[in-house]
Specification:
This is DUF1579 domain-containing protein. The chain has no helices and 10 strands. Helices cover 0% and strands 59% of the residues. The chain has a 10-stranded antiparallel beta barrel. The chain is mainly beta.
Length: 146
C-alpha cells in the first residue's frame, strides 16, 4: 500500500515522522546538577525507528547506568521509551519536544513525575529540572559531541 492509500500514515518500513522531533537530542551530553553528573549519548538505531540513549551517571554517591529505547507507539500516539538499568530496573517514559522545550514524562503524559527543560537557541545546551510530588532537582546538559 502507498502512503496515499493509508491517508499519509508511514509504511511499516518508514519511521514515524514524530521521531524527527528527537533529532535535537542526538549526540553526547555532559549532564550535571546538584548531586549528579555524567554523560548520556543519544544515537539513532539503524533504520531510524528508535533513538537509543546510553546513560552513565553518578548520583548521590551511587550510579545509574543503562540503555533506553525511544520509539513511536501507535496505540497511544506518543514517543514512548523503555529504560533498562544495570540494577534490573525497567522504567517507562514518554518524550515530547515542542519548539525548544523537552518534557520527559515518567509513565504517562500528565504524570506529576517529569523532566522539563529548555534548549538554547543553538541546541547545544538545555536547562531544566526533574520534579515529582515531594521532590525534584535541577539538571543541565551540554552537548560535548554531535
Amino acid at each position: 500500500m502507498t502512503d496515499e492509500i493509508l491517508g499519509g500514515a508511514p509504511s511499516a518500513n518508514t519511521p514515524h515522522p514524530a521521531l524527527r522531533t528527537l533529532d535535537v537530542l542526538v549526540g553526547t551530553w555532559h549532564v550535571s546538577g546538584p548531586g549528579h553528573h555524567g554523560t548520556v549519548t543519544y544515537e539513532w538505531m539503524p533504520g531510524g525507528h528508535f533513538l537509543v540513549q546510553h546513560v552513565d551517571l553518578s548520583q548521590d554517591g551511587g550510579s545509574t547506568t543503562g540503555v533506553e529505547y525511544i520509539g513511536y507507539d501507535a496505540d497511544s500516539g506518543t514517543l514512548r521509551s523503555h529504560f533498562f538499568g544495570s540494577t534490573g530496573d525497567i522504567l517507562e517514559y514518554v518524550y515530547e519536544v515542542v519548539d525548544r522545550e523537552l518534557t520527559i514524562w515518567f509513565g504517562q503524559p500528565g504524570s506529576p513525575a517529569r523532566y522539563r527543560g529548555t534548549f538554547d537557541a543553538q541546541g547545544t545546551s538545555a536547562t531544566g529540572a526533574w520534579a515529582w510530588p515531594g521532590g525534584g532537582y535541577e539538571s543541565a546538559m551540554t552537548r560535548v559531541r554531535p
